[in-house]
Amino acid sequence: KTLKEIFVAVCYCPFSSHLVFFGSDNSLNWLLLTAPFDHSHNFIAHCSKLIIKPNNAEKVENDTQTPIAAPCTAGDLYELDATRIAFGEKVFSSCCKLSVFLGESNSHLTIEYNTLDSASGTPATKNNSLSDRRPLKSRHTVYINDSITHMVYYSVKDDESDSESETIPLMRMDKPEETSNRSSDGIRESTTKAKKSEYPIQNDQMSFLAMRVTPNDENKLVMFSDTYDHSVVEGDDANKYIVIEVRSNEEFQDVLDKMRSNASIVKYLHKSLEYSETYEYLKALKKDTLKEEQKRLSSLDSSQRKTRSSTRKKSVDASQNRVLLVYPFTSDMNSLEDAALGLMEASGAHPHSHIEVDDQQSVSDSIKKTGSNELAASTVDISKKIRGRNHYLTIRKEDLDRLEPEEFLNDTIIDFWMRWIWRKEIHDSESVVHFFISHFFTALREDGPKAVSSWTAKKNINVFKKRLVFLPINESLHWSLCVIVNPGSINCNGNDLSCILFLDSLKAHRKGRISKYVRDWLNYEWKRLVKCDPLEAPFNNCTMPVYDPKIPYQDNSWDCGVFVCRYAYGLYLRRHRHFTRDDLDDKFIRAISQSPEFQFDMHDIERLRIEIKTLLEKLSANYEVMKKKEKQERKLRGTKETKACKRI
């Protein structure tokens, strides 16, 4: 009644954290009103209003009797996924995002992240499943003209992120020797020297935006007063900056170009940093990286901790070393498939009810070709069927414990999962995919292409006849997945795309260095198998580029192995789809990013962890039945032989 307006719609915009009202006034003017929403009811005093006349769509400012601020201005909103956000020394890594709104006068940044608490409000623990925890979304809106005093950035160029040369390992460097220059605003510009990394494929370069912001009631940064102090200039503390580490270098560079062309923000965007200057801004992230590495080491060593009682230690070791199964093993095929009943990924189910039309016929043909004969046999000795090409996995109790919440998966679990989802094609020489065990890349990196090529030659594996070749990678206490696409189409003029897909849930490995190892091996294999080809090294950056499509990412520090399992499953389901140059033009959005096989979240990851554990427990029961049956058969044979000897 006071404003004499009728609002016909009210909605909340999560991208800009604003309430939006749409309606009309008593003069039949269309009206749009927006206000920042901060979970309080006092938003009228901060809202902006736009009135559009029905005749000529002229924008006019509202009358002065209403408590409305200046009219809102048009602008563009850009969003960036962030890996981590540091408020001084406080680091967040769950569902991080940076939104940049560029307008004529009200340009602002919105920083978002999640914290996980249980529904009761108590801190999240290993005893609480993800479904019992409530993600708490936090947002901080920072207006450019009001609170930002300094802003710098570092953007990794494509040629740097894919570089095959050694670089200074930023995240593992010791405290550098510095030569300091004091800028006019008190920010120290430093050059650094650092030691060479012991992990050459760790991703030691990252794109980030760093700024100093004056805390106020509107941006709510006063809550970080214990970890972030914008007034600090002197000293070597890590609490002087707010740092947003972004995931995509390409998207970040696009947004930076927009920011540099905006008059209201360009004056605060001071400079682009050189790589040697980034150390000072990333101290908090470095500490967080080292803390997470220590956490992983502690978790991996937990099963080997010493106890005070030697007797108890022996019993614990015996329990942990108990063999649950050796996979693959002789079993009734139906029993093996029954172990996956009620499970999704373990049973090979498609994550969505529909499959793309172009995939349906290929899948149907594959089932007709390989499925019927397999399931017809009542008892199948899988180990004999794939002898000479198989890698036997001994799975113990300590391996199963890796599937407990907040534990890190080891190579045994990863290798088992790859073998399991491939189980119906592993013996088929015409299968369009091949899975290497996790030790393959380790041997390639440490011993060179010759060592692993002797392996493929002995097992008679021709990777150039495969559409997808999977290489799980475990380096620096982190898992990622490298997938070689159409390596045999390297010199073809068709539309098939030859490339390397690199899937990393934390962006912790250097795709450029990993792809170099892979290309060196492919060139060695090419010389061995395609001896008549005049090209000695056809695989290079141009003919076999590496891409990292946008995929779901983890929001914790321990689920990287489960993500690799899920990535592999998603691509395996798409093994009958041809990857073409059109996918490259589309940035793999349709082929991967928006495909049904890659629509999953952290709840699916938690479920998959439980699924793999359930599957192993069921297979272990089948394995025990098989071992008892073998024992009885041996005993029966021994009895018959004894009786025969007595008769003789």
UniProtKB/TrEMBL annotation:
It comes from the Eukaryota. Gene3D superfamilies: Adenoviral Proteinase, Chain A (3.40.395.10). SUPFAM superfamilies: Cysteine proteinases. Residues 158-195, 293-315 are annotated as: Disordered. One of its GO terms (biological process) is proteolysis. InterPro entries: Papain-like_cys_pep_sf, Peptidase_C48_C. Residues 172-195 have a biased composition (Basic and acidic residues). GO terms for molecular function: cysteine-type peptidase activity. Coiled coil: none annotated. PROSITE patterns: ULP_PROTEASE (PS50600). Keywords: Hydrolase, Protease. Residues 393-571 form the Ubiquitin-like protease family profile domain. Pfam families: Peptidase_C48. Belongs to the peptidase C48 family. This is Ubiquitin-like protease family profile domain-containing protein. It comes from Ditylum brightwellii.
